[in-house]
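User: Predict structure, ligand zinc ion.
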Amino acid sequence: MKYLLSFLVLCASSTFVNAQHLTCATPPGKSEWLKAYQANPSAYKVDPNTMLYVAATNHIVGTNSGSGYFRPDFLLESFCQLNKDFLPSNIQLYMSFPINYIDSTGWFQHSTVPEGADMMNANNVPNTINSYFVSDPIGAAGYNLPHADGVAIATSATGTGDHTWTHEIGHNLSVQHTFLGWENTNYVFGSPTPTEVYYDYTLFKDTLILDTIIIDTALVEMVPRTNCAAAADGFCDTPADYLAYRWPCDSDSLSLVVQKDPNNVQFYSDGTNYMSYAFDQCQNKFTPEQTAAMRANLMSEKPGTIAPQSPVTGPVNQPTTLLFPIGGEDVQFDGTYLQWSSVPNASHYIVQINRLPTFPGSQMLVNQIVTDTFIYVTTLNNNWTFHWKVLPFNLVHTCEPFGTVETFNTTTLTTIGEASTVDQWSVTPSLCEIGKQVTVSLEHSSSLEALLSVYTLSGTKVFEEKARVEAGNTEIKMATDQWSSGMYLVTLDTENGRAIKKLVLTD
Ligand SMILES: [Zn+2]
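Assistant: Predicted complex:
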């Protein structure tokens, strides 16, 4: 190792082709832990078959005025990709709620590592993996900071098919680039390939020492597996790779660029590895040695992040059914419920309301995560048609897509508006002690069939009665002694439509 004591300009800025092909800014630098692990992996006994559920806190950074946030539905989509990528390693991250929203223009677009470290040191939640979604993390797609123990991700480097988050969490769990040592060094085929390369990892060490530039030496990996345990990333199942820029691959996921090792053995880089710089569409795996190291790192360095058992009851793989309002129903513009059915294993839902059926971001009125099967909206304009849809998820499973889109119209509901079901109806008392009787009164000018139902907020039906409403006044009595305290929705369906009222039960 060479230590150069001085205070110099640290980095030349890189030129990036476009946002899709941004590099990861994390230079190499094996942690002391990884060096010890690779010296004797068998000392770390980790059952490869146990699923490790790892707590993950997501921080969404916006500007000082609270704009520019990474959208919650895009976060879920990216989290789905992350967990798909980690599933073969028997590692699943689970979301630690709440999502932490941070308003800071300086962190939203930061150009130096110490600024990113400040952000992490000020906001990290202990015993979780901390990820920060920002607009610009020092001009890169993302990076991992060992000394601040967090990863920063550019919101442009997210979504289905993007493995940037996977790559950075790989770093966070100790795994290094397959091309370790070549960062900031251009491989040149026409020159003899050196046996050593040098790199600066001052800003990415376990401990940040700002007034010392630390240049380390890496052995260049040979194509035959002669020095694989000592060279580059230290894993023998990741082949030689010298490409430290984002590169395209052929149909076999190999680099188009030919390289030769120090003994002039020619090779192409393997683009399938998440820790290479191949384009995202080439990548599809961690190797068994990388997986073993990440699992050992979790068990020995981050045991507090691991849940003692699965934090969820199972996968979420059914869509929701939208219950109200549907089919263009009229609702009160400045205060209406939206209700949907609960889905097995779902603990959360994301609800979107949009002006257009294609749900463009510019026309999004509501894009909200809730734990109920129901929201109350007060912010919609009058005399508009809206489209809405719901996606169910839980802390681990966020891959179920949005369900069917339904529509409703906002209006001013008067007594005439209520005539969409009956002329008048009431629920009394609307705030009721458990055990007392609730009376639903229906008043209509002619006779008609009605269906009265009561739902919990999680969508479970607790009461249903068909009634023949006679001209004049009809009463339906409901016993509440078997119900628990909380809010209920009383729905009334007739040939004219549906109306909903609130009922609250108290102990
Ligand atoms: Zn990286």
